[in-house]
Structure formats: C-alpha cells, structure tokens
Amino acid sequence: MSLSAVHGTLSSLKACQADIGTGMDIVTDVAMDLAEAQDKDVNPGIKEMEAMILECAKLDREINYFVDVVQQVTAEVTTEQPEAMFSLSAKVKEQFTERIGRLSDAELQSHQKVVAFKDSISNSLNQANQVSADNMEELDEDITVTQSQVNFTCPLTQVEMVNPMKNKKCNHHYDEAAILSLIKTRHGQKKKCR
C-alpha cells in the first residue's frame, strides 16, 4: 500500500511552518513599532503580541512533533502487514497525544523566534527610553533659552515695565499705568448716541 498521500500532506504541513515563521517575524516587527511609539508605560499591545508569538511557537512545535510521529509510525507500518495500515491514524493520534502531554509551555520560552522577539522588544524599549531622555534634555535646553529671553519692555510705551499686568484674553503683558491710560483715552473718545 502506498503512503504517497501521507507524504504529500506532510510536505504541505511543512510549507505551513514557513508561513508561521513569516507570521512570527511580522508580529515581532509590529511589536517593535509599538515599543518605539510607546510612552513610559508598557503598552498592552506588546503583551498581546507576546501572547501571539508564544501561540505561534506552540503551533510550530506541535507541527514538528506531528511530522516526527507520522514519519515514525509510517516507517514502522511499512515493515508490517498491510492490515496494520488501518490502525495508522489511531497510532499517530495516540503517540502524538502522548508526546504533547509531556511538554510544558515553559519550553516555548527557548524557541528561537521567541528569544529573538524578547531581545528585539528589550532593545526597542531601551532605544525609545534613550531617545525620550535625549528629547527631555533638548526640551530643558529650549526652556532655559526661552526663559532667559523674557521681554520686560511695555509694548505701548517702549519703556521697561514697573508694574506688569497680563491681558486675560491674549496673554500679553503691559505696564499698569500705560494700559490704564490707554483704556481711559479710549473711553473718552466714544461718541454718545443721539
């Protein structure tokens, strides 16, 4: 009896593994973008990406074990009688379930793509924190420069202000005597209605 259909299906399954690897790379790239764009708090999206990468690693591991089990069982069956082919599916299920039952999720942390994901995220977070610290230093320098350039000249009289007042609407500063005299002259210029 031929096992070519089984081998063809295993080849398709191995091709899916390449797609899973590509998906894991995309998840890592998205998580790095989130890490670079985040504030000081850990972005919940990064935690979701980490859960997704662990799920992909688990799927990758299960595919590897399934392919191994199928290859072992088919190798055993080819030397036996043709009647043994009927129990092929049951043997594969039994051995696969037994093998998966012995695994722990802690082993997923050592998966190549999971390790690369964590390294990439920590590097991105360190770079983002470094950039934000540099930006804060630049901001402090900008603030000190602007604070040293405060203008104490009244725009109305062009004389240094003795008693500065602030306009509530536009936030301009005027000398109290100058602005009060301007207000009085404007009130005096109003014409009365007949």
UniProtKB/TrEMBL annotation:
| rRNA-binding among keywords | no
Localization recorded for this chain is:
Nucleus
Q: Which InterPro entries match?
A: Nse2(Mms21) (IPR026846), Znf_MIZ (IPR004181), Znf_RING/FYVE/PHD (IPR013083)
Could you tell me which Pfam families the record lists for this protein? zf-Nse
Tell me which Gene Ontology terms the entry assigns under biological process: double-strand break repair via homologous recombination; protein sumoylation
Identify the pathway: Protein modification; protein sumoylation
Q: Which GO terms describe its molecular function?
A: ligase activity; SUMO ligase activity; zinc ion binding
Cellular component GO terms held in the UniProt record: nucleus; Smc5-Smc6 complex
Task: Quote the SUPFAM superfamilies the UniProt record gives.
Answer: RING/U-box
What range(s) does the SP-RING-type domain occupy? 139-194
> What are the alphabetically sorted keywords of the record?
Ligase, Metal-binding, Nucleus, Transferase, Ubl conjugation pathway, Zinc, Zinc-finger
UniProt similarity note: Belongs to the NSE2 family.
From the Swiss-Prot or TrEMBL record, give the protein name. Answer: E3 SUMO-protein ligase NSE2
Q: Record the organism.
A: Collichthys lucidus (Big head croaker)
